[in-house]
Write a structure and sequence with these properties.
Two copies of one chain form a homodimer.
Chain A (H helix, E strand, L loop, with lengths): L11 E4 L1 H14 L4 H16 L7 H13 L10 E5 L3 E5 L5 H19 L1 E9 L5 H6 L6 E10 L18 E5 L7 E5 L6 H10 L8 E2 L17 E2 L10 H17 L16 E10 L6 H16 L15 H13 L1 E4 H13 L8
Parallel strand pairs in A: 3-4
Antiparallel strand pairs in A: 1-11, 2-3, 4-10, 5-6, 5-10, 6-7, 8-9
Helix pairs in contact in A: 1-2
């Protein structure tokens, strides 16, 4: 993550991961989730915070979920049903359940099919936000499988290349592949220039937007460094056409096709408007053994990833990393030292603790 | 394609597609390919030229292939063998055959598996250049399937984010999804800022590079508009880290993992150096019927794609397109009016015709 998204030192409160996990689980239980689902939902958010992806951890997301449960926009006890199935594919009705605990069940089905047949993929319709995609894509790693996740729906924030209207959500993709001794390759990105949650994070810590991150409401890219205006669209990654925004737009469209459209919901742009978050998801597990010996694969991955991280940096740069490496390093640091939250986030936990009459202790 | 890559009008020679197809087939036959493989190889190149992707058509590629056949770097009559297989996966030894005709056979296997089980994927090792990826990804469309293709290997041209060394080829991805009345969605991109072939095309027509398309040999992005220097690295899409080059780098790494590594060749950075082009490939076919009724899917795709192309353009822009739409329009124009080639390309065909004692007529 870029430096500008880090919580400034003066505003940091360090919290032990297990304490935040317990508090988050208690909140999800109070929202009506079963104890098992609450534990899973909390784990997804805390995995994000431990990896340094606080944009998708408890800071931004939890209060939104609590509000949606309060407004009865999320079903805390969804009845998941497979609506269509083949040897290696399935479509799952999410029954308006939160993606945090619905999608791991979809990925488990995909893993099971991949184990039996070599590959498995599951779409989920009628679901809600899934948190950090990397969590789901990493699930197959321990079975020597590659994991793929994408998700799309509503609300809309991204303007297609040369358009003036918001027609996509941030439509992220995540891929994970195992290694032996190196940290696994875990690549998780929005197809916008920045994740929507990171804009909110930047707003909270007063960080500016870069040129070509957002457009005005006529779709014209804003090419100077700026603070977040009241109304704007987020550009696809690439920013301008000359810098390849058609690539961000294309990967966003593929997310739309693989998740809501392939799951039978139709594109997010035709769904009910903000603030109701409706999403379709797609997960895939690829069994390495269906192609080559997994031991050879993991040895080749080690050699590949090591070569990347030990390559000579560009003039002025300190090091070269690969996707998943800084996050794995951050997990070690944060498990040891605690997770740094913005004091405003801790304040929210204190207020929700009082409101919901919970008894966790964060610090 | 950006305007700058079009052949200037004064240098254009219009050629009927069927004439160029016959000439190209004759050249491939002279290189030792069977009549069937030569027809297929020619079709892949001409599909590219018809779609307006001349970077991957006969102009740049054919002379390279001819040279490689002459240097015995490509096996004209490869003995394709499946080295590992499950219900839905396979790994194919390409026996150093040209990807143009090897990869369609891999995709046929993937389609057959998808038809039986819901999904199929095939890796190919020990192969050569596959031309325009879109050709392969479009093969499953007529069976109501989604097609996915990626490829990676050697020679190297792309520098990872913050690195100073070229460690990737242009590592492209292509996705195709069918619609009913709208042109299908066909998204085919290099994970570099520009395809390597487009740089050569731009060089021929004297077009400049944009800022952040390439770096100097220390890995520092060149931020002014410039003509192609003698020595340079191509940046991942995004260009600079602030503009998201880690996304291009990540998709490039995933191509490396899914194609050469998963096919058992190891990463392209460890292969023998330029000019020997060695590549691993990955193709996947996804049967829509495994998730939802394909009729519903195609109706939803029509609605989605029409909404994109009829959305209000940004101030100053004429229209909004989606990936595959301009290419489908170009096919209609070029089938009617002929394909515009640079006169230098026609000159090459005349010289190779004399050299190989062929008797085609282009104009």
């Amino acid at each position: 993550m870029l430096e500008r998204f880090l919580v400034p030192e003066k505003d940091r409160v360090l919290v032990r991961p297990e304490r935040m996990l317990a508090a988050t689980k208690a909140i999800f239980e109070k929202c009506g989730q079963s104890s098992t689902d609450a534990a899973l939902s909390a784990e997804v958010l805390l995995t994000s915070d431990l990896r340094g992806c606080e944009s998708h951890g408890v800071s931004n997301q939890l209060r939104v979920y609590v509000q949606m449960y309060g407004d009865q926009e999320i079903n805390p006890v969804p009845n998941l049903q497979i609506t269509r199935e083949t040897d290696v594919t399935a479509n799952l009705d999410g029954d308006t359940g939160l993606g945090l605990h619905v999608l791991p069940k979809a990925m488990e089905i995909a893993i099971d099919k991949a184990d039996k047949h070599g590959m498995g993929a599951v779409t989920v319709h009628n679901s809600r936000h899934i948190g950090m995609l990397a969590y789901h894509s990493m699930m197959p790693l321990k079975y020597d499988m590659i994991g793929i996740t994408t998700s799309a729906g509503n609300p809309l924030s991204m303007v297609p290349t040369h358009a003036s209207e918001k027609l996509f959500a941030t439509n992220p993709w995540a891929w994970a592949a195992p290694a032996r001794s190196e940290a696994p390759f875990v690549f998780d990105v929005a197809t916008t220039q920045v994740a929507g949650n990171k804009l909110r994070l930047a707003e909270r810590i007063g960080a500016p937007m870069d040129p070509a991150w957002i457009s005005d409401t006529d779709g014209v890219p804003i090419m100077n460094e700026t603070h977040l205006p009241d109304d704007y669209h987020i550009l696809p990654f690439g920013g301008t056409r000359e810098q390849g925004s058609h690539k961000g737009y294309g990967f966003a469209a593929m997310a739309e096709i693989m998740a809501p459209i392939l799951s039978g919901m139709g594109a997010g742009m035709f769904m009910a408007p903000v603030p109701r978050t409706i999403m379709g998801h797609y997960v895939q597990a690829v069994k390495i053994d269906g192609f080559i010996d997994p031991n050879q694969f993991k040895d080749d991955m080690d050699r590949f990833l090591k070569r990347l991280r030990t390559s000579k940096p560009a003039s002025g740069e300190k090091r070269v990393v690969y996707a998943g490496l800084p996050e794995a390093e951050e997990v070690e640091i944060r498990q040891r030292e605690g997770i740094p939250y913005h004091k405003e986030v801790i304040g929210w936990f204190e207020s929700i603790k009082a409101e919901l009459q919970l008894d966790f202790e964060l610090v």
